[in-house]
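Same chain as my last thread, 169 residues:
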Amino acid sequence: MRRALDALFNGAAALAAVCMVGLLLMVLLSIASRQLQFHVPGTDAYAGYLMAAAGFLALAHTLKRGEHIRVTLLLSALPGRWQKGMELWSLAFATGLGSLFAFYCCRLTWQSRSFNDVSTSSDATPLWLPQIAMAVGAVILAIAFLDELVLELRGQRTRRHSDEALRNE
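reply #2:
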């Protein structure tokens, strides 16, 4: 199960990287088309879709690597038992919020498909297509939060402490 979850999180991160490359290509195409006096419709809209997809698909991988912003000032001041309890509460709350977020992202995508909602830009893209990446990223994030909660309950969670704050001047 661990390998499957890690493959899911890493696969989503790889898709996010592909979206970033696609975003770069859209921006370069937009710049080139302006310089060479031809128009490619929809490049701005597709760049936005790819940026959103990259952000959502990278959320779970970022969480699993311990790179999400956390305020640990309160946690570090608590004694061991209280610290573990607060960590469990935080992860349970985040799992609940992440699950609600995933549910409503999936619901939005489904409704956009049902209502045949299209982009208001010149490309008139059916909105459910770019919203799929948002929904998939939100579902994978909810799974990552649940995984972190289960690992914490089992006492198997490894905490990654970034030393980035130590290098700031």
